[in-house]
Amino acid sequence: MYVWPLAPGPGTKELEEIKEAWLFADPLIRHEFRAKPDDLRMITVDGDSMDPLLSSGDRIMIDVSRQAPSPPGIFVIWDGLELVAKRIEHVPHSDPPRVVLKSLSPEYDSYEHVADEIRIVGRAVWVSRRL
User: Fold this and answer.
1) How far is CA 102 from CA 50, 75, 128, 129, 131, in A?
2) Residue 112: closest CA among 96, 130, 123
3) Distance between CA atoms of 8 and 17, rounded to whole angstroms?
4) For residues 77 and 116, what is the distance between their CA atoms, to the nearest angstrom?
5) H or E element that contains 61
6) In terms of DSSP H, where are the helices of 2-123?
7) Parallel, antiparallel, or unpaired for β 98-102 and 83-91?
């Protein structure tokens, strides 16, 4: 089973798959991650806003079929310039529906958005870190 990395396209504001592959065992994908192989993508973390959970250089696997921020969790969103990882929580009883985007580092503030204004790429399901 292969997982394709995602990155911003050169000179564009869209995403593209980089044709390098990560190989994972099918049972790990289907049973541990509870995902379909075609729904998984890998990105590299760049920055410190999610420290200590995610550090710059970490690789995270995202399930692109899981874009609803319920239950709350770590998601990758496309902000128009780059992919960013944030903890996303739905604001109960908000009309129109709103979400809170949180960094885990205390150096960064949380902020709210109307749910339709953000583009959730997928939910983080796995992380890899170099020692």
Assistant:
1) 9, 10, 21, 22, 26
2) 96
3) 9
4) 12
5) strand 59-63
6) 26-27
7) antiparallel
**Three-state DSSP class for residue 121:** strand
DSSP 8-state code for residue 31: I
pLDDT(13) > 60: no
Six-digit token string for 114: 């109307």
Task: Give the pTM.
Answer: 0.82
pLDDT tens for each residue of 48-89: 999 999 998 898 999 999 999 889 999 999 877 778 899 999
Would strands 59-63 and 111-114 be described as parallel, antiparallel, or unpaired? unpaired
* CA atoms within a 13 Å half-sphere pointing along the CA-CB vector of 1: 17
Amino acid symbol at 84: V
